[in-house]
Design a protein that fits this description.
Blueprint: H1 5-8, H2 18-25, H3 55-113
């Protein structure tokens, strides 16, 4: 694929300047120029600051963490209540099963007595 950037209007021929002189001196070669930077004006790069969250964000985060802690405590209490209810139901079931067995055994004794 070849593209003519002069035909597309993206480039134009120069008529004067140092780049023109370089092009005349070396026909057919691509002239590249870099940015001219004065190294004395560069200085040193400033050190990166540590990212600290804004105070409002920090307060909001702490408030949300407190809500999470409260929610976790409430869930722990709810689980303890469920466990207590489950234990009470198990006891009630055991008592009902025992009463059933006693009543059934008494009825079976009566049936055997009729024979």
């Amino acid at each position: 694929m070849s593209r003519d950037i002069f035909k597309d209007g993206l480039a134009r021929e120069i008529q004067s300047g140092s780049d023109y002189d370089a092009a005349v001196a070396a026909p057919g070669e691509v002239i590249q120029r870099g940015e001219t930077i004065d190294e004395g004006k560069l200085g040193t790069r400033p050190k990166a600051r540590k990212a600290t969250p804004p105070p409002a964000t920090d307060k909001k985060r702490k408030a949300l963490e407190a809500e999470v802690e409260t929610l976790d405590e409430e869930w722990g209490d709810a689980q303890a209540a469920f466990d207590a209810r489950q234990a009470a139901l198990a006891d009630e079931r055991d008592k009902a099963a025992s009463a059933y067995r006693k009543s059934r055994e008494a009825l079976m004794q009566k049936i055997r007595g009729l024979r």
